[in-house]
Amino acid sequence: xxxSSEYDIIVVGAGPGGSMAAKTxxxxxxxxxxxERKKEIGAPVRxxxxxxxxxxxxxxxxxxxxxxxFQIGGAKLVSPDIQNDIVVKTxxxxxxxxxxxxxxxxxxxxxxxxxxxxxxxxxxIELLKNENKxxxxxxxxxxxxxxxxxxxxxxxxxxxxxxxxxxxxxxxSDLYNSDTGYEYEMVNVSCDDLIEIYFSKEYAPRGYxxxxxxxxxxxxxxxxxxxxxAPYAKEYLDKWINGPMKERFKNAQPVAIKxxxxxxxxxxxxLVADGFMVAGTAxxxxxxxxxxxxxxxxxAGVLAGKIAAQAIKxxxxxxxxxxxxxxxxxxxxxxxxxxxLKLRKALEMLNDEDLNVVISSLDDEDIEKLLxxxxxxxxxxxxxxxxxxxxxxxxxxx
Amino acid sequence: MWGEWMVYINGIKCIKCGACVGVCPTQAxxxxxxxxxxxxxxxxxxxxxxxxxxxxxxSKE
Lengths: 398, 61
What we know:
heterodimer, A: alpha/beta, FAD/NAD(P)-binding domain, D-Amino Acid Oxidase, Chain A, domain 2, 3 domains, seven-stranded mixed beta sheet, globular, B: alpha+beta, Alpha-Beta Plaits, two-stranded antiparallel ribbon, two-stranded antiparallel sheet, 2 helices, 4 strands, 16% helix
């Protein structure tokens, strides 16, 4: 393959966010290079693959049938004692369980069609700097180490982001605000068209367990636990599968193991520098309630790509110019995420007995309200059943 | 070297998810096509990678 030695914009990381950034910037007239470390875009998969219809609103993209494994009609929230559940069938909970291998690659293909050039099996090992300005990358490829210049580098290299740190931004995930996930893709798990969420302090401290169906009898079965919760995610999941869920999983066989880090605290404060932007999971733009990052990364990618392309047209790639990305993100998505972070903090205060009462006393409309950020009516209802939670959840009314 | 111990990554248990890379404060860990690469000169023995690993693949050596 032949590549130039100079591009307007280099996007690092060809996940859904990076591909959307590359596609958007190319469509807006920029000369774009999209770089992926792995030899095949989309593989290996490292997440539950769920995406909600609501979260896709505002992103101008079709999800072709081949890109998802199963269409989801809603979510089922199950209490710690597995005695009660709430089934919610709204746009907040309807969606898809994607086939990330196909989905991610298809988005990269769309970026390529829009005119972006793509490099796979290429690892960025250094950022080129002129004083404090980022002016390109040093990348290791099968053809050797290359230096490529750029006006703007957009880092969308996921939870294990190193690029933003090379730029001098602090993107280290602090342990407490990082969920750690472990998941089996399993066959012989009978499923409806619902994603299932299981709350349990015992089996998923500061997180939850999930069953995301990929077909009638195949599912992603996983756990996310809060960082610093010993011992480790795999042990919690194994204990759950072989314990309270033994009957459901008695014939289940794993066909894949997946896992990873989910930064859930809140978006990074500093998203731009001179000639540089960081977005998506690399910027910790992840939903603190469900830990989902795909749709948010796509939104961030579109926004970053658009602003970067305009900055190229304006011939101004300074931090001040690129700050538009940070400001717009904070005004829109981050506002919603901050609210959900508050809900997460309140949920973390509840023990299993509290959660049993909460789930048995709420209905689907209450959950819809919570997901929309309308907390007061639900908090009032919960407190009428369990007044001792005033201290834990009373703050949600303010 | 900073402390008395050094981290050891069990290549068989490791699922190459990159969680340790994301929490390492000194970029001593890198995820590559071949797996996790550990640079002991950068390690400060903080143990963050050990605590976050979902597969219990990292231990003190």
